[in-house]
Amino acid sequence: MDLVPALREPLKQPLKSVLGPATAKVMAEHLGLHTVGDLLHHYPRRYEERGQLTPVAELPMDEHVTVVAQVADARLHSFASAKAPRGKGQRLEVTITDGSGRLQLVFFGNGVHKPHKELLPGTRALFAGKVSVFNRRLQLAHPAYELLRGDGEETVEAWAGALIPIYPATAKLESWKIAKAVQTVLPTAQEALDPLPAALREGRGLVPLPEALLKIHRPHTKADIADARARLKWDEAFVLQVALARRRHADTQLPAVPRRPRPDGLLAAFDDRLPFTLTEGQRKVSEEIFGDLATEHPMHRLLQGEVGSGKTMVALRAMLAVVDAGGQAAMLAPTEVLAQQHHRSITEMMGELAEGGMLGGAEHATKVVLLTGSMGAAARRQALLDLVTGEAGIVIGTHALIEDKVQFHDLGLVVVDEQHRFGVEQRDALRGKGKQPPHLLVMTATPIPRTVAMTVFGDLETSVLDQLPAGRSPIGSHVVPAADKPHFLARAWERVREEVAGGHQAYVVCPRIGDEEDDPKKSGRKKSPEDDAEKRPPLAVLEVAEQLGRGPLQGLRVEVLHGRMHPDDKDAVMRRFAAGETDVLVATTVIEVGVNVPNATVMVVMDADRFGVSQLHQLRGRVGRGSAPGLCLLVTEMPEASAARQRLNAVAATLDGFELSRIDLEQRREGDVLGQAQSGARSSLRVLAVIEDEEVIAEARAEATALVAADPELEGLPGLRTALDALLDEEREQYLEKG
Q1: Which of 96, 465, 479, 483 could cross-link 305 (Cys pair, CB 3.0–4.6 Å)?
Q2: ∠ at Cα 707 (702, 708), nearest 5°?
């Protein structure tokens, strides 16, 4: 973070005598630590108090752990084996304890001699290794260890505090070796340049950076750790928010063509023919967007909306405003099914207004074209021609829109649907097609907690649609425990039949298609011993559809839909389902986003535990879109006490997507969520927890915005400039450039 010359020193050279080239190499290759500064910012994961063992019951399987404990017992056994047939094989079994739990260590062969001499009952040490199970007991095989003698100057120095730091480590470099390396470079912390402006630091009572580094690595009390973490969290939040504030500031300096709708133009004509009134939320968000479009700088706005809150309507009105002003609008969808769906619903909503240049087209009409990779050559040629001449005011497409061949007459607005499915480069390529930077509206139906929005999409202004349009029905959600209560599953299929008998339709969603090889390696999932449900492959569309057609849903019209079908076949299946010619659609998550069939009232999710919280919420949003109430059944074989069942219970308990996204984030590692933004900068969070530290992030954003407004070049803050350079290496800088 603070690359002053002393902290910029590569670990390999100045410390040859101390770290040794081998240690420096492992640090670089396995932990990404290259300089003294990197090592100082490699913070302990937690702290052990002397003689305290991580409760044995909580030791994670197959993970590297470091424990501090006392040897209770050590026994040497002889045994016969292929290598030592005459009973000369040796095994050393050592039991360690902290008084509340016991753990077995085993050493074999020639590796028994040293520990046999050193690990005597009563000896205290740090032990590190991989947890495994043998004879139903947890054990560490051949663990590395470091004796805590408490004499000898080095040991006293190294373990001065009562708190022993445990670092994120690897099999090749144990925590205590990292601790020793940190001890070596710790004096350099005095030279760390402070990125926080002095007034901010003093105003918030934060300790200076050198003191924070000292306290996080060598705390004497728990208060030391709290001081250090509070300070380092501010560093991370503030430096990141300054980077984003500078990005926003730079955007306000770019030129863009203001796009104002005509009072008697296409937008007015569209509003006049709407059969319903817009919700208060839709009106408010539209005003924010029209305000942005009217400025001479490009809009950068994130539109978050609950499933079914009418985001497409808001986006369409923005596109019509731009067409009114003589520009073109492009809507980018992540899949062909979704692009076709948007094209269909937008042309239906616009009616004769979408028939520009055709007989029967309205006076202000424009052309709405679809552009996808699987279109025929003639249709594609015509679409490209309509774009380059400006005949088509609105184009809806997939990645095909980004290709070099696609040229616009005057691109004024880019709408990106389901932001997290697009790479930054793709968005950037489309924006590059305007004569001047076009306005950008990014939509997502995955509600994002406020602080994540500030951290991941911090360079975008945010609008939220949290009101459902009138006429949307409530959705009841229930967990169906298929293993514990098979009759519940039977009842679920009865409910599907009842809905179909009442003139409605149903979705059944499975995690897998079913025509791939059943190779556990390919599924990318680690098998968990939690339950037998995990041992079988996930349920597949093709198998489930066949079983349902022959069994509980016999006599109903059942069809399948999945991503490997030909686009025309997919479209035909969706059309039949939308027209009510199919009763039950068995599909993969291809239907997760954007598919709109108001007559569908039931959503059955098979193996629901294999889906994420946000994904289940998305799927549930496909039903209850008409006047009849929706029903969502989450089928699982996981046992009641499992974490997976608790997650499903949480989904069943609330329809609030923002609440669910918080739960999702708390249960998953933040890196997953932050990683969706394809951002280098975001994954650099070390002590900042996006959900817990909401206040810090919000305050840091306000401070950063004010600071950048006053001094965009940060001329008076060399420490902050240096910290930004470290955060924004080239790749991250590019990420923010393209955000």
Answers
A1: 465
A2: 100
Strands 124-134 and 64-79, by their bridges, are antiparallel
Q: Minimal CA–CA distance to 690: which of 460, 451, 459, 454?
A: 451
Q: What 8-state DSSP symbol labels residue 605?
A: E
Using CA atoms, how far apart are residues 266 and 503, in angstroms rounded to an integer?
Answer: 38
| Cross-strand bridge partners of residue 48 | 164
Beta strands at 392-397 and 558-561: parallel, antiparallel or unpaired? unpaired
pLDDT for residue 262: 86
* Cβ partners under 8 Å of residue 509, min gap 6: 586, 587, 588, 589, 591, 603, 604, 605, 606, 619
CB atoms within 10 A of CB 249: 14
Backbone CA torsion sign across 200, 202, 206, 207:
positive
Cβ pair 149, 155 in contact under 8 A? yes
The predicted structure's pLDDT at residue 586: 92
DSSP assignment of 172-235: TB-HHHHHHHHHHHGGGGGGPPP-S-HHHHHHTTPPPHHHHHHHHHS-SSHHHHHHHHHHHHHH
Measured in whole angstroms, the distance separating CA 490 from the mean position of its chain's CA atoms is 35
Q: Of 307, 337, 303, which Cα lies nearest the Cα of 624?
A: 307
Identity (one letter) of the amino acid at 177?
K
Task: Give the whole-angstrom CA distance, residue 447 versus residue 425.
Answer: 23
Phi, psi of 639 (to 5 degrees): -70, 160
**Torsion sign over Cα 572, 575, 580, 586:** positive
What strand order describes the sheet that includes 600-605? Answer: 475-481, 630-636, 600-605, 505-509, 584-587, 558-561
Q: How is 484-507 classified by DSSP, letter by letter?
A: T-HHHHHHHHHHHHHHHHTT-EEE
Q: Check if the beta carbon of residue 616 is closer than 8 Å to that of residue 591.
A: no
Spatial separation of the C-alpha atoms in residues 226 and 229, rounded to whole Å: 5
Beta carbons within 10 angstroms of residue 35's beta carbon: 19
Q: How far is CA 511 from the centre of its chain?
A: 19
Q: Could you say which residues of the chain have pLDDT below 50? A: 1-5, 15-18, 51, 151-161, 517-534, 669-683, 730-739
pLDDT at position 143 is 85
CA distances to 200, 314, 615, 629, 676 from 305, in Å = 35, 10, 15, 21, 18
CB atoms within 10 A of CB 64: 18
Which amino acid makes up residue 637?
E
Residue 573 Cα to chain centre, angstroms:
31
User: Tell me, what's the pLDDT at 125?
Assistant: 83
Nearest to 332, CA basis, from 261, 423, 250, 245 = 423
pLDDT value, residue 663:
75
CB neighbour list of residue 92: distance below 8 Å, 6 or more residues apart: 74, 75, 76, 77, 106, 107, 108, 112, 115, 116
Q: What are phi and psi of 58, to 5 degrees?
A: -95, 0
- The burial of 147, by beta-carbon neighbours within 10 Å (0-12 exposed, 13-18 middle, 19 or more buried), is given as middle
Residue 486 makes CB contacts below 8 A (sequence gap 6+) with none
Q: What are phi and psi of 130, to 5 degrees?
A: -100, 130
Return the structure tokens found at 390.
Answer: 């400006």
Is pTM beyond 0.85? Reply is no
β-partners of residue 73 are 95
* E strand intervals along 375-528: 392-397, 411-417, 439-444, 461-465, 475-481, 505-509
